Amino acid sequence: MMTTSVLRIWTAIAGVAALAIAGEVLIAAAMRTLGDLDHLRTGPGLRGYLGPIRAVLSSPHFLIGAACMALNFFAMLWALSIVDLSLAAPAIASLTYIGNAIAAKLVLGENVDRRRWLAILFVCIGVVLISK
Amino acid sequence: MKHALKPSQYAILITIMLTASVGDTLLSRGMAQVGQVDFQHLGLLWHALFNPYVISGIVLLICFFASYMTALSWADLTFVMPATAFGYVIVALLSRFWLHEHLSNYRWAGIVLIVCAVGFVAGGPSRTEDPPSHHELDIMDSGAGR
Q: Tell me: the pLDDT tens digits for B10-37?
């Protein structure tokens, strides 16, 4: 652990966070395009869920996003082999929250107002404190 | 300000918080029983699939993913994110009152901050439109659109 350079540690953390952001934003974009899943219900009961499931699985944005999430999972396992969990977990979570907010504003066109920026800042500090 | 979540939508948000935190806890407890998995012992992963904690953890995380995507179909990513962060609070409170672990002042401060964050966001609209459409809203507000 001591021989791992600072650059390598933060590259790993940034890489894992970037995959998580890509995955979440792609999935959010897919769901935003599909709209409220309740409207896609094909009927009452359990079979009615076939409509939403089919719609989600045939969305290319969703598929690429899910692939990013899967990659993120394995990248996380790899990152934990070179970075301590006590640093990696809060660092990756905080970076992902901030990155998601920026990407949501730029890519998804969400209106991230002062209230939401403040909330994201609070969540980041909170996550760091809670994992101490 | 349109802020009218249906009771079923609140239920989805609460499901997200509970399934994510409890699922992770069950999974980590199960994997602690299974033992350390590395590239020489990948067979252990197969073994892990028969651990009851791991199975229930996976089921809960599948529920989490389904409800997370449902929430994203009617709410902004920046609205759902603080809700998922609330899972950290639940894990911390579970470890305090269920496992009777000691919570340091830092962790209590973290809990307070995340609770505040959820409060901020919950007070606003769940779905915001693309920035260009704001112009139209301004026109409507000024009365020109009527």
A: 899 999 999 988 888 888 788 778 777 6
Residues from A contacting B (CB-CB < 8 Å) are 24-25, 27-28, 31-32, 34-37, 56, 97, 100-101, 104-105, 108-113, 115-116, 118-120, 122-123, 125-132
Distance CA B86, CA B110 (A): 11
- pLDDT tier at B1 (50, 70, 90 boundaries)? very low
Distance between start and end Cα atoms, chain B = 18
Q: Is the pLDDT of residue A118 over 80?
A: yes
**What is the 3-state secondary structure of B3-44?**
CCCCHHHHHHHHHHHHHHHHHHHHHHHHHHHHCCCCHHHCHH
CB of B106 closer than 8 Å to CB of A132: yes
Q: What number of residues does chain B have?
A: 146
CB neighbours (10 Å) of residue B132?
A: 8
